[in-house]
């Protein structure tokens, strides 16, 4: 039985509403498996962050994030109040029921919420890194937030817009691939300045720069094959100026992880990344755990092993 005081934060709209429809039966299975689990259903975007903070303040020490990568992102940010971690001893478990499922791929979990039930057996916890980033929101205000999986800038924010405003009924991989193709038709590579670990700024014209804690993004793209969740560094992957035709040709390599050998790809490792647009006023958009968050300039840093993840 579960030795933790557990709260499930559930996004019923994830996976095109399948999570909400399946929650009554799944919650019964969850109770049979681990005992009493309290839960709250979200009703608006951003509420998962609020509910997580409230639960931690009330003494819950295990939060189950039930939904897609966007839900996990919101729940993660509930572990922090600004830059302060609310309860460093509390743990997170992800039960993925969403479109992308990219973070669960890094964990080696099969699709669907039932595959994650084995996470709740026993009391094993794995300390993992979290990314913290300072950025500007879409209305130009400075902000600070955290990410669990991957932050990118370039085409990703436009992809998010297309994916999140159209049906996801075809599944994560197809939805993100089609969203990427639509974005490629409109997006023009942007020049940016990037500094790694305080080093000199380098100028690159990019389609995307991925700052990776996890390994997958975009509905299964194996963008950062060597990224580790607990090594105190990001894998920084730059896809430089690519035509639409070349991207389509290269896409199979991105899904397999062999794109890192391509001459238009650079891979670096760093724990602090700073980036800004070369062209003043150029809106270089952010994609953070599959969510469109804002734009450059940005500073990203690793919080080494600051979060306890429930493992099996």
Shape: globular
Order of strands in the sheet with the most strands?
A: 9-11-10-14-16-15
Total discrete domains: 2
- The topology string of helices and strands comes to EHEHEHEEEHEEEHHEEEHEEEE
Whole-number radius of gyration?
19 Å
What is the name of the CATH topology of the largest domain?
Answer: Tumour Suppressor Smad4
Largest sheet: 6 strands, antiparallel, barrel
Spans where pLDDT lies below 50 across 5 or more residues: none
Class derived from helix and strand content: alpha+beta
Q: Can you tell me the CATH architecture of the largest domain?
A: Sandwich
State the name of the first-level CATH class of the largest domain: Mainly Beta
Q: Give me the oligomer status.
A: single chain
Count helical runs. Answer: 7
Write up what this structure looks like.
The chain has 2 domains: 6-123, Probable inorganic polyphosphate/atp-NAD kinase, domain 1 (Rossmann fold); 131-305, Sandwich (Tumour Suppressor Smad4). It is of the alpha+beta class. Helix content is 26%, strand content 35%. Strand 10 (190-196) and strand 11 form a beta hairpin.
